[in-house]
Write a structure and sequence with these properties.
Length: 415
Amino acid sequence: MKQKFLIFFLTFFMGFQSHFAFSDSFAYVSGKGSTDITLVNITTNTLGVPISIGGSSTRLAINANDSLVYVSNNGLNAVTVIDTATNSAIGNIPTGGFPTGIVFTPNGSFAYVGERTPNTVSVINTATNSIISTIPVGTNPEGVAIRPDGAFVYVGNSGSGNVSVIDTATNTVANTVNVGTSPIDIAITPDGAYAYVVNAGSNNVSVINTSSNAVVATVGTGTSPFAVAISPNGTRAYVTNQITDDVTVIDTASNTAIGSIPVGNNPIDVAISPDGRAAYVTNGSDDTLSIIDLITNMVTGTIPLPAGTAPHGLVLTSFVLPLQSIAVSGRAKRKDFLVETDYFIQLNWSVPLDGAFPILYKIYRDGAHIASLPAGDFRSYKDHNLKRKRTYTYQVVAEDSFGPAAAGSISLKVK
């Protein structure tokens, strides 16, 4: 899972005090038993209008600005492109037989897709939606992941028991790392230092040091593990287990399994919200989506999906959980000096109204971050050297150890 930027959608008028909220977030869920992508509003836990793609599908990827979803359309042997603004399929990119894992480069310019039948990875130019290179890898490539710096792509080859490391500068295989049996999925830590490889046939996870490309640890899981996701702060890895119907929790500091979370029947994929508070798991045999609270490691909800979907992969957009509220007030002021006048705005705000415990407040002016203040009894900020007769919109965002937890906004005009 990648980091997301704060996006502010609400418009505020001069002097208007408002409780701040982020826009709704969505999950795009593929299905081996359906020719649709299921759209789930995970702010309200309701289903949206399904997106027809013309074939059954497995894995998906979403680009950094949430504008495009690429889908491995196994029924058409193509990558289907979904425009998230309209939630409609806008084209198909023909691939080799049975496309599998997909990943976008951090800048969104390219996507790498595994192809099981020809044992290759194809490189897609996302501006033209065309394949510009095809790279031979191991047997039956499945999971695909990229380092945060975009320098290397890691491909799990389930048929040959190894991982191909692709140099994105040359689009050639720079290294091959032997792992466990049937490596089927990969996730890379946010700092890019380690790759976690799920070995479906040996019921474990191989941990690769991405500097040396050597396996430095092996962690046991449940039976028939399938997918892995890493928390945004990099401290936990979560692995779905198809036969034991649970999710293994791995502490990445010690590389040990520290618990398991029961979910639905035949859990397949897992995705973590960008704030690190929740995980979502597709349950392939009971057509549901499990919601896990990652603070308590307990399932807090189950979303029914259309019958017969056989849900497989999923990706999430932006913020998943609604934020609590902060009451923000402020005044535009001036201070006259001998040769100049300082026009400034003083902001004041409440503690989060719904009980969040922040460690930091971040101040944004017109969407740009201008200050960070440690949480405490003093909740005030002065923004100096402003322009006369201009209206400024401020957001105050409270962050706890997981990330944004509460927010509020106000707009004020300097007279």
